[in-house]
Design a protein that fits this description.
The complex is a heterotrimer of chains A (294), B (162) and C (799). Chain A is 34% helix and 27% strand. Chain A has 294 residues and is α+β, with helices and mostly antiparallel strands. By secondary structure, chain C is an alpha+beta fold. In chain C, helix 9 (366-384) packs across helix 10 (388-395) and helix 16 crosses helix 17 (756-768). Classes of the chains: A alpha+beta (294), B alpha+beta (162), C alpha+beta (799).
């Protein structure tokens, strides 16, 4: 399986990269980590005219942690983001989810921003970005714009970014106070795409009772889904049983079957994992409230 | 369409190589066929089996998922670069032979590079950590039992050497 | 005295080379070769209306495009049907390039040769084929119902129907105190070695010789087929097996279309030509195995003793049947396992479907047969409320009854006679290993904690060392090196080491003096191949016999030179010496020099053999019944297979909510007779168990109704990583040596995988409380089975 012939540019600056994307538009594809793109090229499922290789844009290889959250540059590899301790402390959901992304050799090259804009419905980071209410900064020769996660994903492998735009940064907001997170996934084999993945966020009040429960899902639809599940469990203690939230989620979701799992089984997983991660997130929030590191 | 050729330099196992490659040339094919380093093997070309794993700046990556042209200027280590200059097998290579951690040998180079890099970061892995280290590489022959043993044995040998 | 090496875990001589990355696999060879890509059918069943190559002609670096119309002579005939059988009345094989019809997605239609693979694929992409799609027959049920036909001239899609029987099963079942029937199914999987197929051909026009390398399990088989297809005298064809990155059965098939087309192109173009398949090609144009639907009827008494068993199954062999009926015949015969079944009837239909061909995959039909029998044993135990191990024990053939004739014809065309084995002893070992007797209380305690745990058991018997023969050649070089050759091939089983261990022991030489070559027709042209766990038995025995012949000659020659009696001589560390007389010795290398009387010396040592240096002037230099040189050649050709056996037990835990299945313990007891290298045998068991886990819980070929393979990649065909296999595999051995060969060896290559589907079904059934009758099983499938059984329970049906 060998790629088709392709032209190649390796810009030395972001501006150069943007100029190339403006010039070539949809005839060009950005090559960052390539862990999703290269197999598509090899299988000839993608045959762009030109590759714009952004691996020289070292200025995009950052992980910046501030009070309001974590900013990940386009060239930050999954492995670097996962290893970044301050980032894990500021936004534990990032590290929790990244552990599930493929295997180390893939994480060593693949980029977190790249994974987000590749928009695979079975990928972890789009769901994480969505449940946290994060954003992606898209740059072009026309300027920069910030796209909220909920406006970013148009369908499977499809974003609302224009062909001349380069995603230069993803922003993962920090957790509000008294909030805990948890991530869980069921995959057939370790490292596989999830049959169902769940990123849960729970906020407690001063009495350690649930005031907000929000869950993001991967592998249940063509784009990430985010559900507010506070309703049935509002006011419960952090260590209460939360199966009802799982049942509610199951009624809201409509997964598709594939060769690995039926729709009903995926729904069952969503239900079970929702309850389990909400419980974990709630306990984590209580621990945070008690001063225990997340 | 004729492929346009791009001149690149790859530093492989300490030796610089200058080659002209089409943009679409996979690093795996460049190493194997342009540089004649056939120790890196190709099992799937979609990044799953790990047989093609090489070290880029000491970090394991799938060479079937890298374009050679994108690796211009990089330092690469392949299985051919693991033994010492005088030919002595590295501790990981030796451990594989001692523990019968290979049968057909096709997946082996990918395991060797992966484990070599991992033991730099984690010189004393537990059994569970050893399983994690080899968790992303497929082997169809050995059933992995002896590969896990080899990771632990290699760590032992490295401790003895130190 | 040299330490005996047979039975020792000697480190492999292959390894230093392989761990350095110095392996020479097919694609590592032929750096000067041009390369091939194949246009393959995108339809499961279609007529080819037109092939238009014009778009491909201006691809840079294109050298040739071949279609069926370019094939002449024997190349234009279908590929050979390798193993005919009287019951195979409607055998069909494919053409090397499709003629006017394609019968599976992946079938080869055109061969493109270009300067490199990238360019060859560019050309393939530009060839335009017009098809008239036809209805596709997919799956056993559709084939059996035969609403559509794969081949117009094969009624009912039935290639063969075969019945074997002993006694009167129907009558015995009817008269039995108890009766049960089971409907079972096993899905398709595949060998899936990490290295795919590959062929490299060099045509020497000056010599009129073809040299072919191919990643095969049978160099001699390929040689014969290529010789016929290309019309080249077989003496002018050499086939060399390179290092092979795994076979597991799929590489026994020959000739692949590419194995005849690549040398054809090499000869036509006057350039070396190489084909290396990619992973997707392997999925859609190599071979699969395992798919069957089964129906069992059994009659038994109050003690669980089987009185009669009738086994009917339908075997999916894909679009063509080059390998004949071997797999279903093995299912039919090996289903009997270690049991005495006084009245047995087995009938199968081997069916065509519009899918990839089905040929042996490690186990080769045994896993399916074992599945049928072992589910039956569990069902009998459940029906009578008896212990599952006890029911099996009551049906065992006893050691005193060996040899035991099952009354059927085996896959080698010979009577199915078990030569040796001790099944009660194996069961004892297994029960102790897995703590069988404390299971009930363990399970009860776990249940009290809300956990679902299950223990499974499965037993099997494996006919190994199938004929017709293998040969061995041992030659002592004048340098003292021992050159050993056998014609069958290696795919990672450590033959270079194990066979060297045999020669080291037989001849009395250090292991490091020995080199073993396998699968090279230049070195050994009479062979069959590596399959059916036969290499150690067949080539091991032949090499032992050849080494003994070499030793006898060495002693005879040395005795003359040392003026001693051969009976007083021994060979230790490569030195032939008079026992107990220090200094009276010759190196084997020197004996080799003396073995070849020379007119012309070619080095210092060889001067000792020249005509003025040595020889009785009144006797012929080479005696009438002798030959020059210190070498021995012998063959091993047994009248029957020799029977290995084993029993597995597995502990599983299933998640009550997600139905995920976790392996807690995996235990193996197996009997493969004498172990040449216990470390290598253990490795074979580990590997087999891992493939078994894959086949039971993860791997299945997912064809849709149109005959498209939906998981033709490693992303979606789920082979186990380390995380999916047990943390440890506990193995205990029994060694009942085979009485049929000089070393007492039985085969071990398939032991790990044969009972897997059965043992996991047994364990999951035990955990869930209902019987698992279809394998493999995924969490999603288990989830749905649970719902079904709950529903049935509520509706008052027995689960």
């Amino acid at each position: 399986m060998k790629p088709s012939a392709v032209s190649y540019s390796r810009p030395g600056s972001v501006d150069e990269a943007l100029a190339l994307l403006t010039e070539h538009g949809s005839g060009a594809k950005v090559l960052a980590g390539g862990q999703s793109l290269v197999p598509l090229l090899s299988m000839r499922l993608a045959a762009p005219e030109r590759l714009v290789d952004i691996n020289s844009l070292a200025e995009l290889g950052y992980v910046r942690v501030a009070a309001d959250g974590v900013r990940v540059g386009a060239l930050a590899r999954h492995a670097a983001v996962l290893a970044d301790r301050p980032a894990a402390e500021r936004q534990p959901l990032l590290a929790a989810a990244l552990r599930w992304v493929a295997h180390p050799a893939i994480r060593n090259r693949g980029t977190s921003v790249g994974s987000i804009v590749h928009a695979d419905p079975a990928a972890e980071l789009p769901a994480v970005l969505s449940v946290l209410g994060g954003t992606v900064t898209a740059a072009s020769t026309a300027g920069r714009r910030t796209v909220p996660a909920l406006e970013l994903f148009a369908g499977p492998l499809e974003t609302t970014l224009r062909p001349d735009e380069l995603a230069v940064e993803a922003f993962f907001p920090a957790l509000p106070a008294q909030t805990g997170v948890a991530f869980a996934e069921v995959a057939r084999r370790h490292g596989d795409y999830a049959l169902c993945g769940v990123a849960a966020l729970v906020r407690l009040d001063d009495d350690l009772r649930i005031v907000q429960a929000r869950v993001g899902y991967l592998s249940v639809a063509g784009t990430p889904r985010v559900l507010e599940l506070t309703g049935p469990i509002a006011g419960r203690s952090y260590d209460a049983e939360l199966a009802e939230a799982g049942r509610l989620a199951a009624t809201e979701l409509d997964p598709e079957p594939d060769i690995h799992a039926t729709a009903e089984y995926r729904r069952q997983l969503a239900q079970v994992l929702t309850a389990r991660t909400l419980q974990s997130a709630a306990r984590s929030a209580a621990g945070v409230a008690a001063g225990v590191p997340a | 369409m004729t492929d346009e050729l791009h001149p690149i330099t790859l530093r492989v196992n300490g030796i610089p190589h200058q080659v002209n490659v089409p943009a679409r040339r996979l690093l795996s094919d460049c190493l194997r066929h342009d540089l004649g380093l056939t120790g890196t093997h190709v099992g799937c070309e979609h990044g799953v089996c790990g047989a093609c794993t090489v070290l880029v700046g000491g970090v394991p990556m799938r060479s079937c998922l890298l374009l050679a042209v994108s690796m211009d200027g990089e330092q690469l280590t392949t299985v051919e670069g693991l033994a010492a200059a005088d030919g002595t097998l590295s501790p990981v290579q030796q451990a594989f032979a001692e523990c019968h951690a290979l049968q057909c040998g096709f997946c082996t180079p990918g395991f060797l590079t992966t484990i070599t890099a991992a033991l730099v970061e984690q010189p004393d892995p537990s059994r569970d950590q050893a399983r994690e280290i080899v968790g992303g590489n497929l082997c169809r022959c050995t059933g992995y039992q002896n590969i896990v043993e080899a990771v632990l044995r290699a760590a032992e040998l490295m401790k003895d050497e130190a | 005295m040299t330490t005996r090496l047979i039975g020792e875990p000697v480190q492999r001589v292959e390894d230093p080379r392989l761990v350095r990355g110095d392996g020479r696999y097919l694609d590592d060879l032929g750096s000067d070769a041009v390369e091939v890509a194949v246009l393959r059918s995108p339809h499961a069943h279609a007529k080819i209306l037109d092939i238009d190559v014009t778009g491909a002609l201006d691809v840079d670096g294109l050298l040739a495009i071949y279609t069926y119309d370019d094939l002449t002579g024997p190349l234009a005939d279908p590929l050979p049907l390798l193993i005919p059988h009287p019951a195979l009345t409607h055998g069909r094989t494919q053409y090397a390039l499709a003629r006017d019809e394609v019968n599976y997605v992946g079938e080869a239609i055109a061969l493109v040769v270009a300067e490199n693979r990238y360019l060859a694929e560019d050309a393939v992409e530009r060839i335009v084929v017009s098809y008239e799609p036809l209805p596709a027959v997919v799956g056993v049920a559709a084939a059996r119902d035969a609403a559509n036909l794969v081949h117009d001239d094969v009624p009912g899609n039935v290639a063969a129907n075969l019945v074997q029987q002993v006694g009167d099963a129907a009558a015995a079942i009817a008269a039995a105190p108890h009766r049960l029937s089971l409907d079972l199914s096993v899905e398709r999987s595949a060998s899936m070695p990490l290295e795919g197929r590959g062929v490299l051909a060099r045509w020497d026009a000056d010599a009129g010789r073809l040299r072919l390398w191919t990643s095969t399990q049978t160099a001699t088989g390929v040689r014969a087929a290529v010789s016929v297809k290309l019309g080249i005298d077989i003496e002018q064809v050499e086939v060399i097996t390179p290092d092979v990155g795994g076979g597991f059965g799929v590489k026994i098939v020959h000739p692949w279309p590419e194995e005849v087309l690549v040398p054809m192109a090499a000869r036509a173009l006057g350039r070396p030509v190489k084909f290396t398949e990619d992973r997707r090609e392997h999925f859609v144009s190599a071979a699969h195995e395992r798919g069957q639907l089964q129906h069992v009827e059994v009659g038994f008494d109050d003690d669980g003793r089987v009185l009669g068993l009738s086994f009917r199954f339908w075997h999916d062999h894909g679009a063509y049947i080059p390998y004949g009926l071997i797999v279903p015949i093995i299912t039919s015969t090996q289903a009997l396992g270690p049991y005495k079944i006084p009245n047995y009837r087995v009938e199968f239909d081997s069916l065509y479907t519009n899918t990839v061909i089905v040929t042996p995959y490690r186990g080769a039909g045994r896993p399916q047969g074992v599945f049928a029998m072992e589910r039956t044993m569990d069902a009998i135990a459940a029906e009578l409320g008896l212990d599952r191990a006890e029911v099996r024990a009551r049906n065992f053939i006893q050691p005193a009854e060996m040899p035991y004739d099952q009354g059927l014809i085996f896959q080698d065309g010979r009577p199915l006679v078990y030569d040796s084995g001790d099944y009660p002893a194996s069961l004892d070992k297994l029960k102790r290993l897995v703590d069988w007797d404390s299971w009930t209380s363990y399970q009860a305690a776990a249940r009290a904690e809300g956990r679902r745990v299950g223990l499974g058991i499965a037993c099997y018997v494996e006919g190994t060392g199938v004929g017709p023969y293998e040969g061995g050649h041992v030659r002592v070089d004048t340098t003292g090196r021992i050159e050993v050759a056998t014609g069958l091939t290696s795919q990672g089983q450590g033959h270079q080491t194990a066979f060297a261990q045999i020669v080291a022991d037989e001849l009395g030489v250090p292991l490091s003096d020995i080199t073993v070559v396998t699968g090279d027709t230049r070195r050994f042209p009479y062979a069959v191949g590596t399959f059916a766990s036969r290499a150690a038995v067949m080539s091991g025995s032949a090499i032992a016999l050849a080494a003994r012949a070499t030793k006898a000659k060495a002693l005879r020659l040395a005795a003359e030179a040392l003026e001693a009696d051969p009976a007083d001589l021994e060979i230790v560390d490569g030195m032939v010496r008079v026992a107990g007389v220090p200094g009276a010795e010759l190196s084997l290398g020197t004996v080799a020099v003396l073995a070849n009387p020379l007119r012309y010396a070619f080095d210092e040592a060889s001067k000792a053999a020249t005509q003025f240096a040595v020889g009785d002037p009144d006797a012929p230099p080479v005696a009438e019944d002798d030959e020059p040189g210190l070498e021995g050649r012998d063959y091993y050709s047994p009248a029957r297979s020799t029977f290995a056996s084993g029993m597995h037990a597995v502990l599983v835990e299933t998640d009550p909510e997600t139905a995920e299945i976790r392996i807690l313990r995996y235990c193996v007891v197996h009997d493969c007779g004498t172990l040449i290298n216990p470390m290598i045998v253990q490795g074979q068991v580990h590997g087999g168990v891992a493939q078994g886990v894959g086949g039971a819980l993860y791997e299945r070929m997912a064809y849709d109704e149109a005959g498209q393979l939906q998981n033709a990649s490693f992303m979606d065909f789920l082979m186990p990583y380390v995380s999916e296999v047990p943390d440890s595999i506990e193995i205990d051995h029994l060694e009942t040596p085979s009485p049929l060969n000089p070393l007492g060896i039985k085969g071990a290559g398939e032991a790990g995988v044969i009972p897997s589907a059965a043992v996991f079904a047994s364990a999951i059934s035990d955990a869930e409380g209902f019987s698992i009758t279809a394998m493999p099983i995924s969490p999603s499938e288990l989830f749905h089975l649970r719902l079904q059984h709950v529903q049935q329970h509520h509706e008052g049906e027995p689960s």
